[in-house]
Amino acid sequence: MHIHQKTLARTVHFSGLGVHSGRMVNVAVHPAPANHGIKFLRKDIADATPIPARFNVVVDTSLATVIGYDGVIVSTIEHLMASLAGLAIDNALVELDNYELPIMDGSAGPFTRGLLAAGTITQDKPRFAFLIRRPIHIEQNGKSVAVYPDRCYRITCTIRYDHPLIGEQTCSIEMNQRTFVDEICNARTFGFFHEVEAMQQLGLARGGSLENAVVIGTDGVMNPDGLRYTDEFVRHKLLDCIGDFSLMGIPIIGHVVTHCSGHAFNQSFLQKLFEEKSAWEIIPISADDHEVSRREPSRIGEPKERTAPWQS
């Protein structure tokens, strides 16, 4: 893990359709100062306040991760957030002129490539992480999310669908830029044709198409070019998980394990994690992950150890 915070070297622009709204949106991701975090600003609303990308401002998880403040929302942030987290970009201001981010090709690949092309600069403030000291676990109706102590940030994701093309799939990675870029960021969102058709009849998924999602029909994948990976489905769920867990505000040093989870259950877990204050502490990231993992618990009961540096 990087030990200093990073931001973009220059502004990068994206444009496209929102998958649910079907509306065109233009996005500019700007550099931001240290300890700023990731914030979203609606430029189409006069005097709008920047909304921090944090779990405690999530207002909806039914179809995507939606954040909101003072009646203003920003929807479908998970793919861009996954790209920022996957590239260890800590500080950025995301400006957009509509309420939903563009779906692009259904993956985080276009965002990731744009951010990589913009480049990053290292800032003069330390980077912090949640060091997991003991396991935290929630389970309900066949879904579960847990986090365990580990020497690095690791994610294991399992999905199960009653469809022969998917079945049960598991993907496990150590979270770093190389793995994210090479193995995760290009995995696309997916859905079943009958579900997409039903949503569109209800006025949802208006921007959805074979150009921005893997669509599964009765005879298999309907996309002419097929799948990008044999297990693209679980890789995309892991991508969503990276985006959802980035709403903690800083990375984790621990092993996140999800089973049949989604945006809503991931959000429930984050709320549980922040309640379990004795299970973790916030520490500056060391140059040596092994050294970090061997640290003895220190001042775990002190409130200031429970606060991210930009929240104090």
UniProtKB/TrEMBL annotation:
GO terms for biological process: lipid A biosynthetic process. Its cofactor is Zn(2+). One of its GO terms (cellular component) is membrane. Zn(2+) binds at H79, H236, D240. It catalyses: a UDP-3-O-[(3R)-3-hydroxyacyl]-N-acetyl-alpha-D-glucosamine + H2O = a UDP-3-O-[(3R)-3-hydroxyacyl]-alpha-D-glucosamine + acetate. It holds the Pfam family LpxC. Residues 289-312 are annotated as: Disordered. InterPro entries: Ribosomal_Su5_D2-typ_SF (IPR020568), UDP-acyl_GlcNac_deAcase (IPR004463), UDP-acyl_GlcNac_deAcase_C (IPR011334), UDP-acyl_N-AcGlcN_deAcase_N (IPR015870). The keyword Cell cycle does not apply. Pathway: Glycolipid biosynthesis; lipid IV(A) biosynthesis; lipid IV(A) from (3R)-3-hydroxytetradecanoyl-[acyl-carrier-protein] and UDP-N-acetyl-alpha-D-glucosamine: step 2/6. Its EC number is 3.5.1.108. The active site is at H263 (proton donor). GO terms for molecular function: metal ion binding; UDP-3-O-acyl-N-acetylglucosamine deacetylase activity. It is an enzyme of class 3 (hydrolase). Keywords: Hydrolase, Lipid A biosynthesis, Lipid biosynthesis, Lipid metabolism, Metal-binding, Zinc. PANTHER family: UDP-3-O-ACYL-N-ACETYLGLUCOSAMINE DEACETYLASE 1, MITOCHONDRIAL-RELATED (PTHR33694). HAMAP family: LpxC (MF_00388). Belongs to the LpxC family. Catalyzes the hydrolysis of UDP-3-O-myristoyl-N-acetylglucosamine to form UDP-3-O-myristoylglucosamine and acetate, the committed step in lipid A biosynthesis. This is UDP-3-O-acyl-N-acetylglucosamine deacetylase.
